[in-house]
Amino acid sequence: MSGFADDSLISDFVVESRENLDAIEPDLLAMEQEGAEVSQEIINRVFRAIHSMKGGAGFLAFESLKKLSHTMESVLMRVRDGQMAISPDLMDVLLNGVDKLRAMVDDIQASDDVPIEEDLTRLHAILEEGGVAIDSTIQAQAAPAEGTDEASSPGKTFDLDAESVRAALEHGMRLFAATAYIHQDIQDKGITPLEFLDNIESVGSCLDTQIDMDALPNLEQCIEEDLAFTFLFATVLEEDLVAMALELPEDQIAALDTDAVKEQFIGEPEGAAAQNEAASPAQTELPHMLGQILSERLGVSADAIHTALGKQKQGYKRKIGEILVEQGVISETQIAEALQIQKDLRAEKAAPAPVAAKASSPQVSESLRVRVDLLTRLMNTAGELVLGRNQLLRALEGREDVVAGLAAILQNMDLVTTELQEGIMQTRMQPIGSVFGKFTRVVRDMARDLGKEIDLQVEGSEVELDKSIIELLGDPLTHIIRNCCDHAIETPDERERAGKRRGGRILLRAYHEGGQVNISISDDGRGIDAKRVLQKAIEKGVVQEDKAAKLSERDIVNLVFAPGFSTAEVVTEVSGRGVGMDVVRTNIEKLGGHIEMDTEVGVGTNVLLRLPLTLAIIPSLVVGASGQRFAVPQVNLVELVWVRAVEVKDRIEQVHGAPVLRLRGRLLPLVRLSDVLNMPRAYAEPDSGAAHEDRREGIIDRRSTVVEEEGAGETGAAAEDAEAHAERGASDRRENWRGDYNILVLQVGSNRFGVIVDELFDSEEIVVKPLSALTKDCQCFAGATIMGDGRVIMILDASGLAEEAGLHFSDLEAEEKRRLEEEARKEAAAAAVRRSIILFNGAPDEFFAVPQDKVLRLERIETANIEEVGGREFTQYRGAGLPLVRLDHYLSVNPLPPEASALFLIIPKHVQEDGSREARAGIVVSNIVDAVDVEVSLDDSTLSGPGLKGSAIVQDKLTVFLDPTELTAAAGIEGDA
Amino acid sequence: MKQFATFRLDDQLFGIEVMLVREINQHTEITPVPQTADFVRGLINLRGQIITILDLGVRLDLAAREIGAKSHIVVLKTEDELSLVRAREGRDDLMTGEDPVGLLVDSIGDVVVAEEAEIEPPPPNLGDIDGRFLSSVVELKQDVLVILNVAETIQENGQEA
Amino acid sequence: MTDTIKAAIAEGVLRLAPTSNLVASSVADARTEIQKALESTHEAVVLDLSEAEHVDSLGISLVVGLFKTCRDKGLAFSVEGVNQNLLRVFRLFKLPEHFPVKGA
């Protein structure tokens, strides 16, 4: 039988079967979840997929595969027909069957070696429990509908179950009526009827059968007369293949017109029929359609058409129209007319078909299988093209005028290249659902094994990623999800005791964020106890005890990603044994991604993966350090900060011995690229190429603020690192020649840090070329790329840089926190010394202030009312003489303007022993400016004199602050004098 | 009979079987790769392919090479490229590495043809050069031609091997 | 006569039991023996296939022929002792629609 089964047929079958299996699994799980509520469409889809595998396997003579899929099909048929309830046990058996089928398909030539006896036994047991034998189900359900089979055995009628026919047609199968003579076609071929039956079932399904009893009149002639066995048969195969598969002469097989059958049985609207037609383009010859047109539109009798069809089937290799014309039923013009109508109808139907098909079933879309290696090659070629374009643009830069129109051509080429590249990248994009899909099964199986209730919710299946990323994502995600089921989600009883729902929940979610794809896996399980992680980490030597104190809770939890760490106290069968989260992290980072974990004990855990959309071509910024260029992927680059030499002391400081960039309240660890890469700090000036030197030692200016290590005895990692840093700085004094700093702010996960580079060049799209095994060991690089000028440059890896530099983010977080607190404290303190002052002038351009609470009254007096007695000035105030004090007599300030006719008195408050307040003197001033609240710190360094408190800027004026009581005392006016 | 591409480091003449050599060029714009093995001199762009260049001097415990007017790069075949040759010539003894690698040498010499009988086993070591990098020696009229064990020389973890 | 078919009459029922498979090699003998057994008088014919594991196409023809002859003679006809595989074949050929078929 496999004489016509060449390799390409087999490989097509394998590809299709894989797709079928991938599609079956989620559908089976949906069936289990929804139970009796499950839509018929899902069941049909599973049935169709298994059925088509069975057909292919039978056709290609893969016996085990055929047997298993056939038996599974039988079970599914029962389910479809409502004769068998969906249960978890049933699904176990079917899912195991799917696994076996997958194993067979994966190594198709050895498929017969896969043991399936157990599966078959279980499936048969289920079938037997179900009671009714399969073949009778059609009969039992048989609705009295009639399909005429005029082709092969005129006069015969089949009893057909409308549901079976509909199912078959919906699955894109074709219907055939075939006749087998049991002697000639079965006995003489050396096969038994049972084998023949199996044969039929292996390539399709038998909808109905007929045996021509009349052909065999009695016992006497039973050997001599042949018994005709006619059957109606649905299959995905085409007519000639059916004949080959069943080993029947072609003239004993007649294809039925699907549309006609459909209309008759299902009364399906024309649009749907057209859709089906579009789905099976092989069926281009549809004689019945022409017949239909002839009878409906041109009034040709159905009988005449049937007769003609009969003739055609009997070997008249003619077109139906010709036969009809020959018989004088219609004229040639009528045929031409009918053909035109047919043509129009088909055109009409063909046009909307793809859309309709898409709407009804997401599986059917206009697509073409393309080999992945071809796409990869195209992608690489496109990458080269992009490089070529960059080179060309660079070579012609500034020379666009030399050839007329060159600029426009270049621009166009630039555009087209970009589009081409994007398009090719697009072809490799796949929805992440292809990975997510399998987890429903993983979670279900594990929940059953572990006796837990776990509900997996999936969001964002439509988010697309590059194929290579999708492929490499499967294992790490599986590991994380298995960990969730195994360790995170508690048993139902435990959960109940903790006051949670019995059923745990895992949310698997993909979403776009800032040019990346994030995948979060969160559960509502027991969370991870940081204390236990830390204890374990110390035990395992992942972290040293003395350094542990410095770790933030978040750092501790993320220690689970450290090599050789497992939080499981008992390594269970399902946890994946030795393979820990460090492998997960390594795999994710290999993809250019990043992983981090957040957890709260008793509430749950969230693992977040950040992934680039594509691997191969990335936008990046080219920077220079030590005369060498490097590419920084834009995805890691948050911003560029330029710190001018004069700002260095304000922007850069030292915390725990390591340089830090202050950026909008945050403290970012700061490293110099040349230092991390251990390159000499030489800087070549672009114009002259001359190397310059800088005499400063470290990144930090000596004037910079230095935060000393808290606790003198502490020798943490930060301190050691700082020493190393200082050493390097001291031994190598060459530096940035200008003194300004170009700082790249890079992000790794949620951590940011600054990298000082010597030069900034352009942004460029670069093609990432992997590093060879010889250069892979440097974690600072993500790959290499070829620049427009042909030079190779290295691509920096942000997380590798951070690691290589030994950055301690948690230290800075703590420092940030400390500063915020301190600021808050200062603010509170500042509010307490907020002063309420009275502003006034002495000489018109001199401003003074006294505290309001030290002033009893302000009075306006006429210059004329000032009297001089014994060298001291007085004025009448409330029936007594009040001594006056002039500032210029006691302080080095200018006198009041002599021409003023009115002045003001500030009368300081003197508090008596009994608490009453009295006026003892008045300070003469020229003008009261304002009474205000100010927050100032007084500068007392430049002024001195009695009652002088200092100076500050108030309302843009240099203002001298006075204590009026002290001043009057200095003037010899004491209390109770 | 075997053919060897020859080159010099300082005064010593070395050879590599020509079947292992993809090409020899003077592509000396080498991009250094910081923080990697000391014998990795850097990367070059060879018609769109990135080739890792080893400083053969460092590798063989001689001095690092200074790049001069006569400096050349001997680009070796990869395992993939070699597999064809192996199959055609039936030479299972030919071995190289997976990644494209080039060797930086001081200058190149002629192709030397030697009969099997002239090819002798290497000494345990040759001056400072570790014997594991050597495959055989051929006595020439005025020179001793030292044939390199290519697979060993370009192996990344060769240090521990 | 060989004993391809065991024939027994009880209460007007002719019981025909092939002693082995009903296949091409035995069908001709079986037919002769059955024809002979049918010569006696009875009201019903039962074909007992308990001993026949396999029935090939000729065997089917024999069963159908026997059925037709019994019908012509006005005798009730039924088949018994049909194993599962055989049952499928019988069902495929829609034989149970024409006469009762009982499984093993």
Choose one word for the global shape of chain C: globular
Strand order of the largest sheet of chain A: 16-23-24-19-18-17-22
Number of strands of chain A: 40
| Strand coverage percent of chain A | 15-25%
Mean pLDDT of chain C: 83
Task: Please report the number of helical segments of chain A.
Answer: 32
Tell me what the structure shows.
The complex is a heterotrimer of chains A (about 1000), B (about 160) and C (about 100). A 7-stranded mixed sheet of chain A has the order 16-23-24-19-18-17-22. In chain A, strands 30-34-37-33-32-31 form a 6-stranded mixed sheet. With about 1000 residues, chain A is an alpha+beta fold. The termini of chain A are far apart. By secondary structure, chain B is mainly beta. A 6-stranded mixed sheet of chain B has the order 8-1-2-13-12-9, with no helix packed on it. By secondary structure, chain C is α/β, with parallel strands linked by helices. Chain C has 3 helices and 5 strands. The longest helix of chain C has 17 residues. The mean pLDDT of chain C is about 85. In chain C, about 40% of the residues lie in helices and about 25% in strands. Chains in contact: A-B, A-C. Chains A and C meet through helix 6, helix 8, helix 9 and strand 4 of A and helix 1, helix 2 and helix 3 of C.
Task: Describe this structure in a few short sentences.
The complex is a heterotrimer of chains A (977), B (161) and C (104). Chain A is an alpha+beta fold. Chain A is built from 32 helices and 40 strands.
Offer a few descriptive terms.
heterotrimer, A: 977 residues, alpha+beta, 7-stranded mixed beta sheet, 6-stranded mixed beta sheet, 40 strands, elongated, disordered N terminus, C: 104 residues, alpha/beta, 3 helices, 39% helix, 26% strand
Topology:
The complex is a heterotrimer of chains A (977), B (161) and C (104).
Chain A: H1 7-34, H2 40-59, H3 63-80, H4 88-106, H5 117-129, H6 134-141, E1 145-148, E2 157-160, H7 162-170, E3 174-181, H8 182-186, H9 193-203, E4 204-211, E5 228-235, H10 239-246, E6 253-255, H11 258-266, H12 270-279, H13 287-298, H14 302-313, H15 320-326, H16 332-350, H17 353-360, H18 372-395, H19 406-427, E7 429-431, H20 433-450, E8 454-459, E9 464-466, H21 467-488, H22 492-497, E10 504-513, E11 516-523, H23 530-539, H24 545-548, H25 553-557, H26 581-590, E12 594-600, E13 604-612, E14 617-625, E15 628-633, E16 637-643, H27 648-651, E17 652-655, E18 658-663, E19 666-672, H28 673-676, E20 683-684, E21 691-692, E22 706-707, H29 717-731, E23 741-748, E24 751-757, E25 759-767, E26 781-786, E27 792-796, H30 798-804, H31 809-832, E28 835-841, E29 847-851, E30 855-862, E31 867-869, E32 872-877, E33 880-886, E34 902-908, E35 910-911, E36 917-918, E37 922-925, E38 927-934, E39 948-954, E40 957-962, H32 964-970
Parallel strand pairs in A: 8-10, 15-27, 17-22, 19-24, 29-40, 33-37
Antiparallel strand pairs in A: 1-2, 3-5, 3-6, 4-5, 7-9, 10-11, 11-13, 12-13, 14-15, 14-25, 16-23, 17-18, 18-19, 20-21, 23-24, 26-27, 28-29, 28-38, 30-34, 31-32, 32-33, 34-37, 35-36, 39-40
Helix pairs in contact in A: 1-2, 1-4, 1-20, 2-3, 2-9, 3-4, 3-5, 4-5, 7-11, 12-17, 13-14, 13-16, 18-19, 20-21, 21-26
Chain B: E1 2-9, E2 12-17, E3 21-25, E4 40-46, E5 49-55, H1 56-59, E6 72-76, H2 79-89, E7 101-105, E8 107-114, E9 119-120, E10 125-126, E11 129-130, E12 134-139, E13 144-148, H3 150-153
Parallel strand pairs in B: 2-13, 5-7
Antiparallel strand pairs in B: 1-2, 1-8, 3-6, 4-5, 6-7, 9-12, 10-11, 12-13
Chain C: E1 5-10, E2 13-18, H1 24-38, E3 44-48, H2 57-73, E4 76-82, H3 84-92, E5 101-103
Parallel strand pairs in C: 2-3, 3-4, 4-5
Antiparallel strand pairs in C: 1-2
Helix pairs in contact in C: 1-2
